[in-house]
Amino acid sequence: MGAAPEHGAPSCSQVGLSVELDDSLQAIARAGRTRNLRPVEALDGCRVKVGDRQAISFASCDYLGLARHPRLAEASAEAAQRVGTSSGSARLLAGHDESVAALETELAAAFGSPAALTFSSGYLANLGVVTALAGPGDRILSDRLSHASTVDACRLTGADVRVLPHGDAAALTRALGESHDGRTLVLVEGVYSMDGDNPPLAEVVAAAAGRNANVVVDDAHGLGAIGPEGRGAAAAAGVADRVAVQVGNLGKALGSFGGFVLCDERTREHFVQSSRAFIYTCALPPTVVAAARAALAVRAEEPWRTTRLQQNAQALRDALRARGLAVPEGVSPIVPVTVGGDERAVTVSAQLLEAGFFVPAVRPPTVPEGTSRLRLTVTAEHGVDECAAVADAVAEALS
């Protein structure tokens, strides 16, 4: 019998896997697309420390500035002291309690929906919704720029998946006109996470009406941020009551963590019974639930946060356009500036950090080839002067 490997020494199988993966990592490096984990320390307001440099962040999705709000911190700490830091179980076993039930009731009320259901992440919410609503024999019509979680969910369903041109209501209408016997899902986003634009939701809903098609809106970046009282893209388009499911995120505008869906009671019950991403994972921790509930309360009591966010989003778009930079139409807090080449995007991002602004570069495969970009996100904590200042810095770096 051979000697056992020393504690901590890699096994033969680990070494073999490392050799196999090295080629892949080298290919990523040769393409100039290695991604690095950088420590980012939150300071105050929208200021952060990136490495050893302080900067104004235009990188966060903490749209309402709630992630460091004292009421959320106090609620989370109190929950930890009272009931602990983990639910310890899936909801259908021992992980359900009155606090998460109350959160779902409050989410539904806040966003004008009959019911809500929480998931353990936004990714799992998309995965859980799509796979519970479509299967073999069904049809999915999905926008070309759908989020990776939606793409992965479509692959798991076994349904007939059609990828349609981005934001093309006419192409959707043509596809819906083709004969199909099973259920049809139409998948769009309320705010596209890399382009910051909005779909023609009224046209999408009108096309789906009467064709046995159900519209699912992934509104992770819209719920809490855009529309009347921050009630999202469907409310902004006046079609919230005609959308089958809206998917939201607790970790963006609501300053906590996790995902949720808005739907009617029967659809919610279907997800509870059939969504594997809901059934087979731990419930949200009590600390997270408490923070999310506090966020909903603060949001209701301080509507100026939503108003200021929407004003800042417009101010940033206006400032960039005034300096000759093209930005997509839309009303979201995501404002991309396309640079083109991967290397240039990284270089410009570094120049902006030197100038005191944290603006990440986004490269393929997250975005299509040749469309590497600076992705600016604005929050309620920014001021109009800061929006103008970063626009100046971007214009100068690209000149």
Structural write-up:
This protein is of the alpha/beta class and 399 residues long. It has helices spanning 12-30, 70-83, 91-95, 98-110, 122-133, 148-157, 169-176, 201-208, 233-236, 265-274, 276-279, 286-301, 304-322, 342-354, 384-398; strands spanning 40-42, 47-50, 53-57, 115-119, 139-143, 160-164, 184-189, 213-218, 245-249, 259-263, 334-340, 357-358, 361-362, 372-377. It has two domains: 35-61 and 303-398, Alpha-Beta Complex (Aspartate Aminotransferase, domain 1), CATH 3.90.1150.10; 70-301, Aspartate Aminotransferase, domain 2. It has a seven-stranded mixed sheet, sandwiched between helices. Strand 2 and strand 3 form a beta hairpin. Helix 7 runs parallel beside helix 8 and helix 13 runs parallel beside helix 15. It is globular and about 55 Å long.
CATH class of the largest domain: Alpha Beta
CA(first)-CA(last) distance: 68 Å
CATH topology label of the largest domain? Aspartate Aminotransferase, domain 2
Helix content: 40-55%
How many distinct helices? 15
Shape: globular
Number of domains: 2
**Major sheet size, sense and barrel closure:** 7 strands, mixed
> Topology as H/E string?
HEEEHHHEHEHEHEHEHEEHHHHEHEEEH
Give me the Rg, rounded: 22 Å
Number of strands: 14
The parts where pLDDT drops under 50 for at least 5 residues are: none
DSSP strand (E) fraction? Answer: 15-25%
Average pLDDT works out at 94
| CATH architecture identity of the largest domain | 3-Layer(aba) Sandwich
Structural class: alpha/beta
Strand order of the largest sheet: 4-10-9-8-7-5-6
Assembly type: single chain
CATH homology-level superfamily of the largest domain: Type I PLP-dependent aspartate aminotransferase-like (Major domain)
